[in-house]
Amino acid sequence: MIKQNIESYFKSKRDAYIFILKYTQGITRISLLGITEAHYDDNELANQWYDDIVPYVLPSQGGDVEAYNILNNIYNVMTSIY
Fold this sequence. Notes:
The protein has 82 residues and is mainly alpha-helical. The chain has helices at 13-23, 26-32, 37-41, 43-57, 65-79.
């Protein structure tokens, strides 16, 4: 889920997610992607978050390889705590 209604600045949700993943970092990225501490404590919440975003960045569905890899890295950090 994109925070702060940034989606309105892009042609599509796909473009917004790709931009956020590739061109933002740290707290800015975390905030824009709606990541909270709960995502690191709740595997089900982390899975839901990932499942909501991954269709937009999957290279096989018109997404972007770099954005997809960044998303997977974030998800792996979230779920590695378990």
